[in-house]
Specification:
This protein is an alpha/beta fold. It is built from 20 helices and 29 strands. Bound molecules: 4-O-methyl-beta-D-glucopyranuronic acid (GCW).
C-alpha cells in the first residue's frame, strides 16, 4: 500500500511507532482481533504491564488463553510476554481458575455470584509482588477474561485499577450455521462452507479453528455446524469421526460442537420402519446414536431440530406433538449434559390466502403454547424474534412471552437474508435491542424479553441465544467488511443484553478500525442509522416483506408475497394495505399477547406507526400519528431512505487515508452498489403502489425521473426492447438486450442539456450466466468500460439483478452523442435499463 506523502518524507526521521505510521493492508480476516499496534501515546498507558504470563495449569482452553494474551500484547504493544508455568518473585499476569489460584493467593475470594462462564479481572499480591489476575470458575471463563483484557488495551482503556466481574446473561449462547454437506450454505452470502466440501468434512480445518477463536472472543459457547434443513447423512456411517475433527478444532476455544438433525433419521439412517418418537425402538436408536457421538466427542453440545416445517419430517406424521419428539431425543442427551434446541419455526406453508382469518403469524404460539411444561429440562424452544421470519420489522413473537415452564432461546439472524444479504449495510443490533428490551408482561408482571430467555423471569434451568451466522470462506467471513459488526453484536448481546447498540458499535469499530475519533464517529453513525435506512427504502410501517420471496429474498417483489400459501401477506390492493390481526375484526393474533401488550395493538389509533400495517388493514389515505397519509409515507420513506443510503458514500470517502486501502476499497464498492440498488428498491416499490392505488405522490417524484433516458427510447443499433416482469423491476417496465450472443449492440442518445459537468449513471442488469462487457463513449471518445461480473442473486432481468455504473465528472455539451455499447457473453445479452444524466458541479 502507498505511504502517505508526509510519511515518505519524514519516515526516516521519525522514531518507530510515531503518529504517521503507514496503514498495513488488511483483508478483514482478523476481524475484531487484529491487535494492531497502538500509538506511542496509547501504549504508554501499559508501561507497567508485567512481563510474564503465568499459566498455573495446562488445558487446551487455558493454553489458548495464555497464547492469546501473548499474541495480543505482542501485536499491540510490541512486547513478547514470557510464558511461565509458575510464579516467580516478579509481577505477572496470572491466568487460572479460582481453584488453581488458591495456593498462591489464599486471600482471593470468589466474588458473589461468579458462575460458570463468568470471570474476574483483578489485582492481587503474592509474596509481596503485584499481579494482574484473570480468574474464573471455569477454564472458559479465564479465556473470556483474557479476551476482555485485550479488548480493553486495543481500545486504549486504562487497566490500572482493575476489579471487574462479568457474568453472561444466559447460559446458552450458540450460533447456527446453515451449511450443507456439499459445501454450499443456505442463505450464506460469503462463499462456501468452512466445514464441509463434497459430502465430507474438509481436511483443512484451520478456518474452523479461527472461527471458534472469534466466537470465543465474544463469549459464544456452542456452534451447530450444519443446516437445520438437515442432511440425514450427518448421522450416518463414518460421519461422526469427521465431526469429531471439527469438535477438536473448536475445543481449545471452549466452543461446543452441535448438530442439526433430521427427525426421520431413525428410519432414513437407522433402517427402522418408523421414526415415531414414542416407539421404543426409535427412542433406543437415538440413545445408541447419542452414546456413539459422546464416545467420540465428549463435550458435544447437542442437537438442533427443525421438524414439521417447510417440508421437513416431523412428529405430526405419527400424530405426536413436538414435545413427544423433543423429549425422545433430549432423554438421550441428558445424561451427557447435552441440549436439544427444538425450533418453533413451524407453520403451514400451504395456507389458503383467500381466507382472511388465516394467519401464519399465529402458528408458533398456537402450536407450542399448549405444550408449555411438557418439555424436558434440557430442551430449549428456539423461537425467531418475530412471528413471521426475520423481517426488517416485526413485533416480538408472542410465544416468547407465552411460556413459563419451558426453556426458551431467541433466534436472531446474523446472515442478512431479508436485510440486504451483506451487499447492503444493515447493522441489526438496534433492531435486536428493541426486541430484547421489549416488555412482554408475561404472567401479568413486567418481564423483559431478555430476562425471559435468560431463564431469570421464570427460574428456568437453561435458555439463551441462537444466532444464524452463515460465515463462509470469503476472507472477511461475511462478505461485507462492516457486516462483521452483526456477528460481534450478537455475541456481545448474548453476553450482556443491557449493552446499548451504540456502545457495541463503538467497541466493534475501535477493535476493527482503530481508535481515530474521526473513523469511529463516521462508522458508528453509518452503522447505527443503517437498519432504519434499509427499512425505509424496503419495507414500510411493518407491512411485512416487500421482498421477492419467491426468488432469492433480495430485491423488491411486492406481488410475490400475495396470492400464495406462504402466508407472508401484506394484503396490499387498490384500496389499502395491511393484515388485520385484531381480535375484533381480524385473525385474532393480537390475543396471543398478554393483555397489557395486546391492548395498544388491538386498535388502529393506538398501534405505533412502525407496526401499523402488521396489525391492521387501512386505506391508503389513512392518516398516521405522524400526520402523513400511509401512501405518502410509503413514497417519502423510500425516497428518504435511498437518499440516506447515498450519503454513506461521501461519508465513507471522508475516511480515505485513515483506513487501509484494501478494506477502504471493499467497503466503498459495497456502499456504491447499495446506493444504486436502494434506487431500484425505491422505484419498484413506489411504482407498484402508484399503479395499484392510483394515488399520485404529493411531491411529484414517483413516475417522474429528471435526466433519465430509458434505454428503449434511445437510438438502438442491434439492441431490441423486451418487457420485464414484473414491470416495476425495470424503469418503464422495459429493458433492451442484444438478441444474439455474438452480436455487438449500441444504444445512443443525443444530449440536449446545457454545457457543463455531469454525472452519468448507467442502470443495467448483471446475471450469473455470462460476463457482458460495456463501453460508454461520448462521440468517439471512450469514457468508461467495464465487465458485468458482480455476483448478484437474480437469475433473470429483475430488480435482483439490476445494478448501476456511475460515471462521474463528464463534461457534456449540447449535441454530444452518448453511446453505450454492449458486448454480450453467452446467455447474458448486455442488458440495459436506462441512463440518468445529472449535473454535478
Ligand atoms: O427464512 C427461512 C429461510 C429458509 C430457512 C428457514 C428456517 C433453513 O428462507 O432458508 O431454512 O427460514 O429458518 O428454517
Amino acid at each position: 500500500m502507498k505511504r502517505p506523502m508526509c510519511c515518505a518524507i519524514l519516515g526516516a526521521l521519525l522514531v518507530a511507532g510515531a503518529q504517521c505510521r503507514p496503514l498495513r493492508a488488511e483483508t478483514g480476516y482478523e476481524a475484531w482481533l487484529r491487535y494492531a499496534p497502538l500509538s506511542v501515546d496509547e501504549s504508554q498507558k501499559y508501561d507497567s504491564l508485567p512481563a510474564t504470563a503465568v499459566l498455573l495449569r495446562d488445558t487446551p482452553v487455558l493454553e489458548s488463553a495464555q497464547t492469546e494474551l501473548i499474541r495480543g500484547v505482542r501485536g499491540m504493544l510490541g512486547r513478547t510476554l514470557r510464558a511461565e508455568k509458575t510464579l516467580g518473585g516478579e509481577p505477572a499476569i496470572v491466568l487460572g481458575t479460582l481453584d488453581d489460584l488458591h495456593a498462591a493467593f489464599p486471600e482471593l475470594r470468589a466474588p458473589a455470584g461468579l458462575a460458570k462462564d463468568g470471570f474476574w479481572l483483578t489485582t492481587a499480591k503474592t509474596r509481596g509482588v503485584d499481579c494482574l489476575v484473570v480468574t474464573a470458575e471455569t477454564d472458559r471463563g479465564v479465556l473470556y477474561g483474557v479476551f476482555t483484557l485485550l479488548s480493553r488495551i486495543a481500545r486504549s482503556e486504562s487497566i490500572a485499577t482493575l476489579d471487574e466481574v462479568q457474568q453472561p446473561a444466559a447460559p446458552l449462547r450458540w450460533v447456527d450455521e446453515w451449511d450443507n454437506l456439499d459445501g454450499s450454505i443456505e442463505r450464506g452470502y460469503a462463499g462456501r462452507s468452512i466445514f464441509f466440501e463434497n459430502g465430507a468434512v474438509r481436511s483443512d480445518l484451520a478456518r474452523a479453528s479461527d472461527y471458534a477463536r472469534l466466537l470465543a472472543s465474544v463469549g459464544i459457547n456452542g456452534c451447530a455446524v450444519n443446516n437445520v434443513n438437515a442432511d440425514p447423512r450427518a448421522l450416518g456411517d463414518g460421519f461422526i469421526p469427521q465431526l469429531a475433527r471439527i469438535a477438536g478444532a473448536f475445543r481449545p476455544w471452549g466452543v461446543r460442537l452441535a448438530l442439526s438433525v433430521d427427525l426421520s433419521s431413525p428410519k432414513t439412517v437407522g433402517g427402522l420402519d418408523t421414526f415415531d418418537p414414542l416407539d421404543p425402538r426409535v427412542v433406543e436408536w437415538w440413545k445408541q446414536k447419542v452414546d456413539e457421538i459422546y464416545a467420540q466427542i465428549p463435550d458435544f453440545g447437542g442437537f438442533v431440530v427443525k421438524a414439521d416445517s417447510e417440508g421437513r419430517a416431523g412428529p405430526s406424521s405419527y400424530g405426536r406433538t413436538p414435545a413427544d419428539a423433543a423429549n425422545a431425543i433430549a432423554g438421550a442427551l441428558q445424561p451427557h449434559g447435552g441440549f436439544l434446541f427444538y425450533r418453533a419455526f413451524v407453520y403451514d406453508h400451504h395456507l389458503d390466502w383467500t381466507n382472511l382469518k388465516n394467519d401464519r403469524a399465529r402458528a408458533a404460539y398456537d402450536i407450542f403454547h399448549p405444550l408449555d411444561g411438557k418439555f424436558d429440562d434440557n430442551v430449549i424452544l428456539q423461537i425467531k424474534y418475530g412471528p413471521i421470519d426475520f423481517q426488517v420489522r416485526e413485533p416480538v413473537s408472542p410465544l416468547l412471552g407465552g411460556l413459563q415452564k419451558t426453556n426458551e432461546a431467541i433466534e436472531l439472524q446474523i446472515t442478512q437474508e431479508y436485510t440486504g444479504q451483506q451487499r447492503h449495510l444493515c447493522f441489526l443490533a438496534p433492531m435486536w435491542k428493541e426486541s430484547l428490551d421489549f416488555d412482554l408482561h408475561a404472567n401479568g408482571s413486567s418481564s423483559l424479553l431478555r430476562d425471559l430467555i435468560s431463564g431469570k423471569t421464570f427460574h428456568r434451568p437453561a435458555g439463551g441465544y441462537a444466532g444464524v451466522a452463515n460465515v463462509g470462506l470469503d476472507a472477511n467471513w461475511l462478505g461485507h467488511p462492516l457486516a462483521m459488526a452483526n456477528l460481534f453484536a450478537f455475541g456481545r448481546l448474548a453476553w450482556n443484553p443491557e449493552l446499548s447498540a451504540a456502545a457495541i458499535t463503538e467497541e466493534w469499530t475501535r477493535l476493527t478500525f482503530g481508535n481515530d475519533p474521526q473513523v469511529v464517529e463516521a462508522i458508528d453513525a453509518m452503522q447505527l442509522s443503517s437498519w432504519r435506512t434499509y427499512e425505509d427504502y424496503t419495507g414500510p410501517l411493518g407491512a411485512g416483506t416487500l421482498t421477492n420471496i419467491l426468488g432469492p429474498h433480495y430485491g423488491p417483489g411486492v406481488e410475490s408475497s400475495e396470492r400464495n400459501g406462504w402466508g407472508q401477506w401484506h394484503r396490499g390492493d387498490q384500496d389499502g394495505i395491511g393484515m388485520d390481526r385484531s381480535v375484533s375484526t381480524g385473525t385474532g393474533y393480537v390475543c396471543q399477547y398478554s393483555p397489557l401488550v395486546a391492548k395498544p395493538y388491538e386498535s388502529v389509533s393506538t398501534t405505533p406507526d412502525e407496526l401499523l400495517l402488521f396489525f391492521h388493514h387501512v386505506p391508503y389515505m389513512h392518516v398516521l400519528h405522524s400526520g402523513k397519509t400511509v401512501i405518502q409515507y410509503i413514497y417519502d420513506s423510500h425516497y428518504e431512505g435511498a437518499e440516506r443510503a447515498a450519503e454513506n458514500v461521501p461519508r465513507w470517502q471522508s475516511l480515505k487515508g485513515l483506513i487501509d486501502d484494501e478494506r477502504y476499497a471493499a467497503v466503498l464498492a459495497r456502499l456504491e452498489y447499495q446506493a444504486g440498488h436502494a434506487i431500484v428498491w425505491r422505484d419498484a416499490v413506489c411504482n407498484w403502489f402508484f399503479r395499484v392505488s392510483g394515488i399520485p405522490d404529493a411531491k411529484g417524484r414517483v413516475g417522474h425521473y429528471p435526466g433519465r433516458v430509458e434505454a428503449e427510447a434511445m437510438q438502438l443499433q442491434g439492441y431490441i426492447p423486451v418487457d420485464v416482469d414484473p414491470p416495476e423491476d425495470a424503469s418503464g417496465g422495459k429493458a433492451v438486450i442484444c438478441p444474439e450472443p455474438l452480436q455487438f449492440c449500441e444504444a445512443s442518445y443525443r444530449f440536449t442539456g446545457a454545457a457543463g459537468w455531469y454525472e452519468v449513471d448507467v442502470e443495467y442488469f448483471d446475471l450469473p450466466k455470462g460476463q457482458s462487457k460495456f463501453r460508454v463513449l461520448v462521440g468517439d471518445q471512450e469514457v468508461d468500460e467495464w465487465t458485468a461480473d458482480a455476483q448478484l442473486p437474480g437469475m433473470k432481468l429483475s430488480a435482483d439483478s439490476s445494478i448501476r455504473r456511475r460515471i462521474p465528472g463528464l463534461a457534456l455539451r449540447p449535441g454530444d452523442e452518448i453511446r453505450i455499447q454492449g458486448i454480450p457473453d453467452t446467455d447474458e445479452r448486455s442488458p440495459l435499463d436506462y441512463l440518468e444524466i445529472k449535473g454535478s458541479r
